[in-house]
Specification:
With 292 residues, the protein is α+β, with helices and mostly antiparallel strands. It has helices spanning 68-79, 102-117, 124-134, 138-142, 179-189, 209-215, 220-227, 229-239, 262-272, and strands spanning 4-22, 28-48, 52-56, 85-91, 147-152, 156-159, 167-172, 217-218, 245-248, 255-258, 278-283. The protein is built from 9 helices and 11 strands. Strands 1, 2, 3, 4, 5, 6 and 8 form a 7-stranded mixed beta sheet that branches. A 4-stranded antiparallel beta sheet has the order 9-10-7-11, with helices on both faces.
Amino acid sequence: MPDEVRLRAHAKVNLFLRVLGREADGFHSIETLFCRTSLADEVTVERTPHGVELEADSDALGPAAENLAVRAAQLVLGATGRRFGVRIRLAKRIPVGAGLGGGSSDGAATLVAVNALAGNAVPRHELLQIAARLGSDVPFLLSDAALALAWGRGDRFMRLDPLPAAPILIVAPPRPVGTAEAYGWLDAAHHAGFRRGALALDAPSLATWGDVARMAGNDFEAVVFEHRPELRAAFEALAGTHPLVCRMSGSGSALFAVYRSARDRDDAAMQLGRRHGTVLPADTLAGPPPPV
């Protein structure tokens, strides 16, 4: 068994996101299309005698006890008898609190890494159940799927054939949007019994970027842009660079645009500059994430 495992934890974007209603337990039912990108944190997990330690090169992560990587490590160690401890090192590249799944992806990578240190003692199906306990998008990020249609709380998903790899530009404004805050704004904008049906979708209806462009949308955009006009201005500027698809990811605050060519993406990055936040060029993935 190895003494150290190093993995990339890839960001996701939501090519569309529909909120279908609020359930009796207070959680919301959604329908979304997850797409994995090349933007990634680096997660290194090292075996130690006992406990869980966290080292990160970012001050924006908050308390270690609430970090999904720490919680993931504790769950796997607990499931395998706590025979050893781990030190987790996070090299952050994914903006925090941006709707890109950075924390969830770190958690998913940590699940895999700690389980590898334990000789893969936790079967795959049980690891997916642990992932669902950590967060709604962790199961997708635990998988090697590049594209998936997800529903429920986002924890149930169907792997789809990937779209062709495409250049993408991510704009991360300096001020994050809290997920609970965004859902609160959405609830306030609808009546208490708000509910709508899911779309009738199959794999062929999501096979090309043209298909995705025709149905792309995010139910959070209207309410988030109302409360955060600087995000509306950033979105309008990004949409003005003529991408194939332009949306907000998750509940914000990151925006993304998909382009026909790397040259179009790079021209857009030059046009935007740093007026609306950090600009991150990347690509969508057309297959399993590459190894470190």
